[in-house]
Amino acid sequence: MSAGCDVIMWRRPAMAVLVLACGTLIYYHCAVRNRNIVALISDVLFVISWSLALLGLIFRFLNLTILPVDPSGWQVSVESANYVAAMLANTLGATEGVLRIAALGSDFKLFLKVVLALYLLSAIGRSASGATVVYAALWFIFIVPFSVKMIAPKIKTPAFLVNAAKSQGTEAAGLEFS
Asked: Which of 24, 46, 141, 165 is the least buried, fewest Cβ under 10 Å from its Cβ?
């Protein structure tokens, strides 16, 4: 989980650029070329198989050997699998609970929020293709943290917050005051 956060927060810029490039290629393949995801997967497998075949021929021609890889290094630990399963179960349970309460009508504010969210998602789905929405979300997820990281050091704390924190004698929520 932390590796994904590192990529999104641009702590690993090379990986972030690689993810954005892959997302751009997927968007181009699905939206611009009007192909489906099955064609994308088959094209990727086709390119990988030919690349491996060519590398095998080159290695055989140059008499290079490849060291064997320990398969235990590629296995997912039981703790990681349990974490992913628990996270998925919690998400589905929370979604089911919110939709049940909204459907019963016992919480009118929640009902309105659910209806407005579903209407907004429906409007977005009618106005743009699924690939376009996912591509825009990918760029949004990567650009917002990067922008905040670049802009945050330049933001000054308002004077009324500084005065309020000094009058209480504490540093409010770990803010740095200048």
From this structure: 46
